[in-house]
Amino acid sequence: MEYRELGQTGLCVSRLCFGALTMGPLQRGLSPVEGSKVLRRALDLGVNFIDTAELYQTYDHIRLALQGLEASRPIVVATKSYAYTREGMLKSIEQAQHGLGLECIPIFMLHEQESSHTLRGHWPALEVLWEAKKAGVVQACGISTHHVEGVLAASTIPEIDVISPLINLTGIGIQGGSRDEMLQAIAQAAALGKGIVAMKPLGGGHLLAHWSAALDYLLAKADIHAIAVGMKTVEEVEHNIAYFRGLQDVPTPQITSRRLHIDDWCLGCGACVKACPNGALEVREGKAVVVSQDQCVFCGYCGANCPEFAIKVI
User: Fold this and answer.
1) 252 lies in a domain?
2) Lowest CB count within 10 Å: 73, 79, 134, 142, which one?
3) CB-based contact 160:139 (threshold 8 Å)
């Protein structure tokens, strides 16, 4: 397994990062015990980097996987919160500490930032993260973003250590610019010492048919220190680790198609439409519908914001 220094954080992480969204209740719905077994296999095989979020509801899965673990390298967990107030971020940090069973959170990020304007709107929460870093409660602070402008804005803030941008072979899901413009923004951020953790390398499943080309594309980018790949089975873990170790003759995994399912009890409230960062949903005739299959990256944010839990990735 290849390991990289994550910018100037002092953290050394496996190039393959275990994306915890896929195994949780927003997607596959593995129980904490089931999910912990999948994650534990990744940790046993050398992965030391885990990406999660308060939204993903996978803290229990991760805590169970870490129990009794004797790892050769420190485990780095990155989590995220939508908090924008001091009180909200303090609560999010406490929830992460309790849920993950960690006194110090290696990486804590603001979830899904868009620009300098949204960063200003979240400034009180950022200040809490910086205070927590000084107090030793958080090791590194950062943001995740689907937006080119989000990367550019975060790169100018010295106190932001890590940026997790959406980037992939075809650029699906990138907002406010092209794939190449996102790469330019990433290069600028990396040159300024930011740790870069790529997300959606397979475009939320849209690039599964071209998985090797999609992974090779990002693995060749020196500015990208780690790549978060969602995994939900031991077979996927073993496949991805083998490929990241350089085994080019790894057989093609079984391709499972994914789609959004909207239940009949949808009230058409529009919460999912507001939550979708890619404009893939609309409310028509009193019910949410997918209007752009090409723009949907199966992030699950729509389902997480549905008050009736009527929309799921299946």
Assistant:
1) no
2) 134
3) no
d(CA 170, CA 172): 6
Establish if 25 belongs to a structural domain. Answer: yes
Tens place of pLDDT per residue across the chain (314 aa): 899 999 999 999 999 999 999 999 988 889 999 999 999 999 999 999 999 999 999 999 999 999 999 888 999 999 999 999 999 999 999 999 999 999 999 999 999 999 999 999 999 999 999 999 999 999 999 999 999 999 999 999 999 999 999 999 999 889 999 999 999 999 999 999 999 999 999 987 778 888 999 999 999 999 999 999 999 999 999 999 999 998 877 777 666 667 787 877 899 999 999 999 889 999 999 999 988 877 888 887 888 788 876 887 76
The C-alpha atoms of residue 150 and residue 144 are separated, in whole angstroms, by 8
Number of domains in the chain: 2
Residue 208 CB coordination number (10 Å): 17
